[in-house]
User: Fold this.
Amino acid sequence: MRDFISKIIVSIILLFLITGAFSSAANTNNKSFESSQFAYEYYTYQEMVDLFEGLQDLYPDFMSYTSLGKTYENRDVWLVKLSDNVEVNEDEPGVLLMGSIHGDERPPFESLIYLIEHMTEFYVKENTDDDEDGLMNEDPIDGIDNDDDGQIDEDPSEDRVRDIIDNTEVFIIPMVNPDGVEHNTRKNRDQKPGQTNIGVDLNRNFAYKWYLYDIFPIAYNDARTSDLNSWNYRGEEPFSELETKAIKNFIENEDIKISLSYHSYGEVIMYPWTHTSQRVPHEKIFLSVAQGISSIDGYYIYNGLTTILPWPGGTIGTSENWFYSEHGILSFTMELCKSKAPTNPAVVIDCCIKHVGVNLYVCEQAPTVKQVSKVVDKPIIFQTFFTFYRN
Ligand SMILES: [Ca+2]
Ligand SMILES: [Ca+2]
Ligand SMILES: [Ca+2]
Ligand SMILES: [Ca+2]
Ligand SMILES: [Zn+2]
Assistant:
């Protein structure tokens, strides 16, 4: 198991080394320094499973990992649960953090594995003055230099993690699409008859208003999502895939209040709707939590196009639309980093640390966020009509 604080120190050293490498590159012409010798090594599926096994041995009281189901290549969609009395389904608000529904997006699973390491380590750790400056937990992970000493987030709070694990059920699925991760492909590995570009884009396979493809084929680019060989092929029908079925089954059996699905890249925070510029009934709650997230990672909040009339267009079949509309979950999407799979270790580790802060913040919102009621938006074909008259 990697140690959280030593990782921070390693990242500072690496940052120094890489910065040094760049400045000396002009002289030595050693351009391959960063990419070949110091490229970040992401977890593999098997390394992740081994880590979970080790953590469960160490912390059986508050950490478990279970399979939500098998994939087409017989891997498991692993679910980690962090909560006190982990074997009991307690009456505590649930949080779902998931990543890499698109398999070639690596920071999502990496940052969630990092979160699991941080939370398990800090749960059992006494309150510690991590930076040995005589003050205790004076600078928790929130992107802010709380004690104004020029360092950011150098003394995270152990009690904060304990509060979350004791009062929430935290569910984490680092690899929703483990086959895609192993093949480094966006889609899953469900070989459809006649397909040359294997698989389905799982984040187009969730239910909710698939009929809009028929009504607005151009706005929803039906030619692409219904094309077997497209990079975002949606599948034959909603929930046709093993992985989306596994997520559906999980959501239907747990009381999840708030969720965050990690993708890369773009440094953007998004929330429903993904298929229309019409604002959701719970826009205010979404926006306030998005602002809380943005204050930590500095990401841009993308909340749909600002149009006078709600307009169809965007993405159908996303997890966030279905989570929100069918189950009243406050569901966010994050696009991490500035590239799909950064190789600079300092960039990846910085992303992981920042999003420990984001994830802890999101977990802390669960008890205060009331379950938003199940939402059914008006048929889109009438939206423009009614809005026109309202205005
Ligand atoms: Ca501390
Ligand atoms: Ca301190
Ligand atoms: Ca500080
Ligand atoms: Ca801080
Ligand atoms: Zn993605």
Remarks:
- The beta strands are 63-70, 76-82, 94-99, 169-173, 256-264, 268-270, 300-302, 330-336.
- The chain has one domain: 42-390.
- The CA atoms of residues 104 and 185 lie 5 Å apart.
